[in-house]
Design brief:
Blueprint: H1 2-8, H2 12-29, H3 36-54, H4 56-70, E1 74-75, E2 82-83, H5 97-100
Length: 113
């Protein structure tokens, strides 16, 4: 009986080693904790991504119209479509550019002090 008790007794160094391994394995079993900035930042990032994704067509059209206007394009005052510089008629309402363009205002006298 004494022999079996001696065989089951674990030396102190081995006991410390086993307890360290158990602690490390216990830490590995915990789910990872996310930092607070990630918890609040992730939904904002996803929302921003989908907001931009949903309005990408409007953004591309806006940039296209800005390029046309910089290159000499003209907006139709009747239907608000931006036409190219070489277009004589509006793409949408088919009105002539000459008819839609405003006439030059009469010269107004310059006020002097």
């Amino acid at each position: 009986m004494e022999a079996s008790a001696a065989e089951t007794e674990v030396p102190p160094r081995q006991r410390e080693f086993k307890s360290k391994i158990a602690e490390e394995e216990g830490d590995m079993m915990k789910p990872p904790e996310f930092p607070p900035w990630f918890v609040f930042g992730a939904p904002f990032t996803v929302f921003t991504f989908f907001a931009i994704l949903s309005c990408r067509q409007e953004l591309s059209e806006s940039f296209k119209e800005q390029r046309l206007l910089k290159n000499g394009g003209w907006p139709c005052p009747k239907c608000l479509i931006v036409n190219g510089p070489d277009d004589e008629d509006c793409k949408k309402c088919k009105q002539s550019r000459a008819i839609l363009s405003p006439t030059a205002p009469a010269e107004q006298p310059v006020l002097q002090r």
